[in-house]
Amino acid sequence: MPGNSFGQIFKITTFGESHGPGLGVVVDGCPSRIKLCTADFESAMTRRRPGRQIYDSPRQEPDRVEILSGIFEDQTTGAPITLYIHHQDADSKPYDILRQLFRPGHADYAYFKKYGHFDFRGGGRSSARETAARVAAGVVAQKVLSPLGVEIQAYSLEIGGIRAEKTDLVYARQNPFYFPDPALNSKVEQALQQAKEEGDSLGGIVEARVRGCPAGLGEPVFDKLDADLAKAVMSLGAVKGCEIGDGFAVAGLKGSQNNDAITPAGFTTNHSGGILGGISTGADIILRAAVKPIPSITIEQQTIDRHLQPARLKMTGRFDTTAVPRMVPVVEAMISLVLADHYLRHRAGK
Ligand SMILES: Cc1cc2nc3c(=O)[nH]c(=O)nc-3n(C[C@H](O)[C@H](O)[C@H](O)COP(=O)(O)O)c2cc1C
Known about the structure:
By secondary structure, the chain is of the alpha+beta class.
């Protein structure tokens, strides 16, 4: 199973399954002499962990990061950094049914077709638990970026069709849904409550803004910054689309409307989302990810078994009502990884 690594100079490799002993990440290519200790991971890991609110999977994982290599006297040495998270609350019993039946909307059927044999417990390798490793790696990436003053903030722009009309970034950071519109927050909660009662799930949109990204990150031709950001975000389970700047809306604009006029003081607008020719311009980078509804629902569904016979699936287990809020810190981490890699590539002149 190749494809577990991401990045060129700042390169991460994640490992581990949802119901194995734990999971982790090896971060290779991190420069030496960056201060790093286990306490640095706490805030980012807490923002991603399940069970923060009742619409999250109730699985209780403290997601404490252990540093197994690459750090000496609280500083990076330049050697590979291995970060490990020990699982403490995996319950595989409800997943026994998936020995035979495929969950519609999840990865089970595709994994079965490809591998014939895979760890289906809790989604195995396709589980969102894998994103804990990405968030841990993102903390290291943030440290690499910190001298540049880059600020990355993602938030839930839309949940269950309720779209924020106001973007209060301070409010977004503090409320449990990471939703930026105080006036509509209770509507989001009602929609989640209703979906949960019905045994259903909701999708939405995560939006991210990057401030202070220097101009010049990104490489022509295949390693464009927008291409790498899209890959980073599309590599997350449940993400079915990615937009940069005005995204799909550019299709309906005229050149005179879409072009960002340039003045000595900078761009007058930001339709491009901070990237032109695959290279950052210094304007804010704006990215949106479309997140599908969680596939695991308790409503009975039509499926087949491993002998291709029709079956009905009524799931029990612990799952999120929506992935959107939990995706927010993960999107921030993926953006950090891309920017740290491109920053180091730019610095190295490669
Ligand atoms: C943060 C996060 C939380 C998720 N929580 C769940 C969950 O509780 N139950 C579930 O079935 N899928 C969940 N997913 C979605 C699945 O991981 C995803 O749909 C699955 O891997 C199939 O991949 P695809 O949707 O990209 O095709 C979550 C995804 C993310 C990123």
